[in-house]
Amino acid sequence: MGNIGLQTLSNGPLWVAAGAVIVAALGGIGSAIAIGMTTSHSAGVLSEKPELFGKLLVLMSLPGTQGFYAFVVAFLIMQQFGFTSGKPEASLGQGLTILVMGIFVGLVQLKSAIAQGQSALGSIDLTGKHPEESGRAILLPGLVEMYAVLALLVAVLVILWVGAKPF
Fold first, then answer.
1. Domain count of the chain?
2. What CA–CA distance (Å, rounded) separates 35 from 57?
3. Which of 17, 55, 113, 134 sits between 20 and 30 A of 160, alpha carbons compared?
């Protein structure tokens, strides 16, 4: 009975899948929280100025990109390690590396989505009071986006490096 537990813990593909699930879940949770904040805040502005919907739509949806980035990372993980072909392969070292990467990239996506949502709240207020400033207002939460993109790029590099050969 003890061998079965040890075999499960040393199963590389299991840890790879866990890393993919964690990154997707954390990115999705962060985006859902942030979009909830921006849409509810925008509802107040739109109740007084419904003509601003087009300008506020980008600000409401911008924090959703982290969920998308997390999905892309999860898909690349699953593809790189054979899950999409039905034959997953990974060493224990690869699995644990992808798990750790999934946790940290997921946390960056979670935190940056929420921070971007908070930044977008100010931009929504700015656009509500000064609609002519909507172009500048989009830049403010866009600055936070840079860190979500950096985490995405690091994840892609790690996935390609770790998937290149077992260790």
1. 1
2. 11
3. 113
